[in-house]
Amino acid sequence: MVKKDPSTEEKILTAAREVFHKRGFGGARMQDIADTAGINKALLHYYFRNKENLFNAVFTEALAAMVGTVSNIFMGQGSLEEKLVRFYDYHITFLQQNSYLPWFIINGLYEKPDQIRELMTRNNFHPDKVLARIVDNLKEEGIEMEVPLQMFANILSLSIFPVVARPMLSHFFSLTDEDMDRFYEERKKNLPRFIINGMKFQNPK
Amino acid sequence: MVKKDPSTEEKILTAAREVFHKRGFGGARMQDIADTAGINKALLHYYFRNKENLFNAVFTEALAAMVGTVSNIFMGQGSLEEKLVRFYDYHITFLQQNSYLPWFIINGLYEKPDQIRELMTRNNFHPDKVLARIVDNLKEEGIEMEVPLQMFANILSLSIFPVVARPMLSHFFSLTDEDMDRFYEERKKNLPRFIINGMKFQNPK
DNA sequence: GTCTATATGGCGATAGAC
DNA sequence: GTCTATCGCCATATAGAC
């Protein structure tokens, strides 16, 4: 199977993903995106009228992918630990390539909550249902939760924060890129047990 | 005791803090800072030659506050669990009052990585020593850590992320302000045990 | 020290030829 | 669809009166 030459639109989107990811919305330069895509600035505006549209395209695509996958993992079958393994494996990798996303979700909820909420429901993401599913999961495994929300916050914190805070950690501890990559691989392996065990202890019955 | 009229420099710094914390370096506008301080743009440049200098002043201060709150507690005496209790009690409260700070620091490191490394050494920040202290602590308690960095990342993630992501959590689960406040109080109580237990299991010797 | 007015440069966006 | 050239704005920064 021959790989078709990527269309200009695809080239733009790929470039935009890369530049927005590195610099954020404000820091990204249309000129940079054009250069990375190997075209000129004017063409960007021909395809996506302005910077905001281009960002929204990239943002929506990423959000949809993430939300869909996460939902599938937790709503499906299997023990909680199995699900956590699959979740961290997917989510940490995904975040490494989209580390600006959490910030834009959080910030977007301040500025345009409806748009984001709409996007989430359109992609069939219902955090309350995911949480309910996790609680059911635990019940089947003989663990009763007092405050499920805490568990949900813990699960997300442990994957999102260390990836978003990558520059902070690597600066603080003078870590190379390879160090950081190993660090994230370690996390994927350790976090599921860490969570399950921490929780078991808190509900010792 | 009479409160002296704040000097112009203090007014500028207060305003700069507010604007930079919310918008980061790239997003902040000198005009905004001037307006907030109740002066005009030219005066900003009179006091701090340029935007970069002003930013550095604010950033150094923020970094010091953040690192200070963390290291003071962990560098002192006591068992790890005691320290964790004190840490979360203090840190989560601190973050609730300074919820922009973590984003500001992380974002600052994205925007100007080189400059910040220089700032850190100049101001004698050594997070690696804090971590070494935690590891010593654990050794005294008979717990050997394979990858201390993981633990450090976990400790910080669990306090910082849920505060920064407050709008996300409250949107997802339709929580009131009172709900959220209770949520954070719960965390202060639960997190120390959660961490200690999760960790013990991972190092079962 | 504090102001008004202005210079300077960069970036998003558009016009228009091909 | 793709390019070159250029506009117009806005943000930082400076000049210079008071």
Report on the structure:
The structure is a homodimer of 205-residue chains. Chain A is an all-alpha fold and 205 residues long. Chain A is 80% helix and 0% strand. The first copy, chain A, contains eleven helices and no strands. In chain A, helix 1 (8-27) packs across helix 4 (51-75), helix 6 (101-111) packs across helix 7 (113-122) and helix 9 packs antiparallel against helix 11. Chain A is globular and about 60 Å long. Chains A and B meet through helix 1, helix 6, helix 8, helix 9 and helix 10 of A and helix 1, helix 6, helix 7, helix 8 and helix 9 of B. The first copy, chain A, binds a DNA duplex (18 and 18 nucleotides) through helix 3.
Highlighted features:
DNA-binding; homodimer; 11 helices
Brief summary:
The structure is a homodimer of 205-residue chains. Chain A has 205 residues and is mainly alpha-helical.
What is the typical, i.e. mean, pLDDT of chain A?
A: 91
Q: Outline the biggest β-sheet of chain A.
A: none
Total of helices of chain A: 11
Kindly report the greatest chain-chain contact and the residue count on each side.
A-B, 48 and 51 residues
Tell me the fraction of residues in β-strands of chain A, as a range.
under 5%
The helix/strand series of chain A, from N terminus to C terminus, equals HHHHHHHHHHH
Q: What structural class do the secondary elements of chain A suggest?
A: mainly alpha
The parts of chain A where pLDDT drops under 50 for at least 5 residues are: none
Instruction: Give the strand tally of chain A.
Output: 0
Q: How far is the first residue's CA from the last residue's CA of chain A?
A: 58 Å
Oligomer: homodimer
